[in-house]
Design brief:
- This is Jasmonate O-methyltransferase.
- The chain is an alpha/beta fold.
- It has a single domain, classed as Vaccinia Virus protein VP39 (Rossmann fold).
- Helix 4 links the parallel strand 4 and strand 5.
- The longest helix is centred in the middle third of the chain and has 25 residues.
- It starts with 7 loop residues before the first helix and ends with a strand.
Length: about 350
């Protein structure tokens, strides 16, 4: 999926990398630290926001036991949940934070994770899941000097009809944002600290993943149909571009090495079906292809409707996502409904 932090299936696919990074951090730091400070970047406020925190807590607990730290009080844990200020942190705290056990303290840290958020050398661990593909802004250079939209009829960089200049504008904006993110974290994370990042990427290994997930292309196709039927103004479509970019693993590796603050411990690539977690909590239900398409469309609606409605109006949302349901069914049937995911574990030099 291209947006949001609710993809539980993606989180479970990433657990081995997360567990390995946290366990190694504990082996190296537990004897020196009374408090481990960690940040979840782009936490959102969905049902699965705290899943990584629970996994981190369990990994720390099991590592302490394995290292015979029972004779010493376990370290206090301090988590910072970061997202943009409009995120409903209060609702999240009321629903979830009271359930955390042990010497664990959780605080909200509103702000843009592309820039500085914490004091120098203050964090031991940083985690981010399905956030860093979101750009800080729509790239510049998507309109000609005479004001003509260069990505006319498209809403993302990954449509085959998008000109190369559009791709370059998105790639350049991702490079700026990701490099700034790395530089900001390099000041905040201690030497030897860890960072695990997960976000959608692109790959030439499967046609469905050449430009990352095809979900935005599918949404764009639905919008073009509605323009043709005069249900949406053409100008609204032509002037709309999603601030999201899915880089290749090779490009991400290049940017990390060029910035120079972190060593790459692991870089994994995972292909995940859009409906991979459809049976979570629904094991007794039988899903036909139409139900699976509807499930994906409903999931996507939950995490994209606000940005789409702000451009095209809430009145057309039911029509839009009904159309998307049918397209998702076709993508699933054709084996093209994949999200190519990058999982990167890094160590601060």
């Amino acid at each position: 999926m291209e947006m949001g932090g609710d993809g539980e299936y993606s989180y479970y696919k990433n657990r081995p990398v997360l567990e390995e990074a946290v366990a190694q951090l504990c082996r190296e730091r537990l004897s020196e630290e009374d408090c481990l400070r960690m940040a979840e970047m782009g936490c959102a406020s969905g049902a699965n926001t705290l899943l990584p925190l629970w996994e981190i807590i369990e990994t720390i607990d099991s590592t302490c036991r394995a290292l015979n730290h029972h004779q010493k009080a376990p370290p206090a844990l301090q988590f910072f949940l970061n997202d943009l200020p409009r995120n409903d942190f209060n609702a999240l705290e009321k629903e979830k934070l009271g359930k955390l056990i042990g010497p664990c303290f959780v605080a909200a840290m509103p702000g843009n994770f592309h820039g500085r958020l914490f004091p120098d050398n203050s964090l031991h661990f940083v985690h981010s899941s399905y956030s860093l593909h979101l750009l800080s802004k729509v790239p510049a250079g998507l309109v000609s000097e005479s004001g003509v939209p260069l990505n006319k009829g498209n809403i993302c960089w990954g449509n085959p009809s998008s000109p190369s200049s559009v791709h370059k504008a998105y790639r350049d904006q991702f490079e700026k944002d990701f490099t700034y993110f790395l530089r900001s974290r390099s000041s905040e994370v201690i030497s030897g600290g860890r960072m695990v990042l997960t976000f959608p990427g692109s790959s030439d290994h499967h046609p469905a993943c050449k430009y990352g997930s095809k979900i935005w292309i599918a949404i764009g196709d639905c919008l073009k149909e509605m323009v043709d039927e005069r249900k949406i103004e053409e100008l609204k479509l032509d002037s709309f571009n999603i601030p999201s970019y899915s880089p290749s693993a090779q490009y991400v590796r290049q940017l990390i090495q060029r910035e120079g603050s972190f060593d790459i411990a692991r870089l994994e690539e995972i292909d995940i079906m859009w409906d991979a977690n459809i049976e979570d909590g629904n094991q007794d239900l039988v899903f036909d292809k139409w139900a699976r398409g509807k499930y994906v469309s409903t999931f996507i609606r939950a995490i994209t409707e606000s940005i789409l409605a702000s451009q095209f109006g809430s009145a057309v949302m039911d029509d839009l996502f009904n159309r998307l349901s049918l397209k998702c069914t076709n993508y699933l049937e054709e084996g093209m409904a994949l999200c190519h995911t990058l999982v990167i574990s890094m160590i601060m030099k």
